[in-house]
Amino acid sequence: MMKKILIAIGALVALVLIGAGTAMGVATHKINKTYDYVALPNITRDSSPEGIARGEQVFRAVCAECHAGGGNTKPVGNRMHDFPPDLGTFYSANITSDPEKGVGAWTDQEIARMVINGIDKNHHFRPMPAFPNMGDKDIAAVIGFMRSGHPDFAPEKFQPPRSELSPPGRMVFAFAMGINDKGRTEAVPVPAKAADSVEYGRYLAGSVYDCVFCHSPGFDGSAVKLQHPDTVLSGGFEFDLAPLGGEGKLLSPNITVSETAGIGKWTLDEFKHAMVTGVTPGGYILRPPMPKYRYADDVELSALYTFLRSMKPNDKVVPPPTGGRPKAEPSADPEKMFSSLGCATCHAPGKAFEAKLQGAKGKAPEEVAKWIRNPESFKPGTQMPTYESLVDENNALALARYVLGKTGGSVSEGTAP
């Protein structure tokens, strides 16, 4: 009897291994195959002033965070941290107008297919989050902005490393997230823009700004996650803080209208303030990879809020990251402010943007203080939070002098401005 049991167990293990090997082979084939059969969409750039302005809105909020990275605005490619490190090492592409290293030689349709399907000029899949349901008009606007002659897209020869998928990463992209190999044969409309429109808010949250994907558990696309009202927007998507100079994992927060675990107590004005400045009503800092939606207008933010209010609340409490969440607590002690305002999270020795402090070197304390309170007025598109509502001019000046004192030392080895 024991011999039969052992034989049965051995056969089961063999079947599992064969199944796993077959699945990995299929996943590898799907990742590496040529997708030349995916038709190019009939989308061309919108070069109207309105189109370029809309394209900049979407690009700054969605594309720049991956392709430029925190503190930068030129989309030359960047190390990405939107997926758990167990899935591999990810780099975004150079999408400046350089014809060799960037997308200067790509047609509008090839860029559009990359956005929709994640399939590049050479018909190969790239592991980037695709936007299969973004409307034609918004894609045309983004391409219009990219091709508008804006200095951020001036040719750059930088070549980021290739993304490397681990075996689990291949399985996730091939099966869990799926590769969209369906060409867009019909135009996808953008819903009518209105502040009180649940439909427009759902479109923004699920098809443009990726709120649904990042703030819902699992690797399914936003369209699938929206079909699960019990878990959508309840948080729990995992990010790795180590590449950003942090510790451990960060789970995306619950943004349902739960009053105990989500943002149910936030007013519309508080929601808008958090999205634009990066500071919550409770004074907590929204840390990367959460972008600042400085280019979103009041109608868009109101529509997002309307949509969130229409969804089912979820009382699941998402645990804070290791070391807690930085909370803005102004103090007469600038060293304490450097920590409590979250500056240390990015700019302390060994952190991802330590070297950025060197940009303040030689500047007047008053100028640095103005930067601290309103960084976006100096560098539009920056992902640094706005501290104007939390730090008065005197405290900002004290913090500026403290920061300037730190620029006199050397920058830790391995950091880059």
UniProtKB/TrEMBL annotation:
Basic and acidic residues: bias regions: 326-336
Gene3D superfamilies: Cytochrome c-like domain
Domain Cytochrome c: 50-150, 329-407
Database matches in SUPFAM superfamilies: Cytochrome c
Region called Disordered, residue ranges: 315-336
Keyword Metal-binding attributed: yes
Keywords: Heme, Iron, Metal-binding
Entry keyword NADP: no
GO molecular function: electron transfer activity; heme binding; metal ion binding
Name of the molecule in the record: Cytochrome c domain-containing protein
Lineage of the species this protein comes from: Bacteria, Pseudomonadati, Myxococcota, Myxococcia, Myxococcales
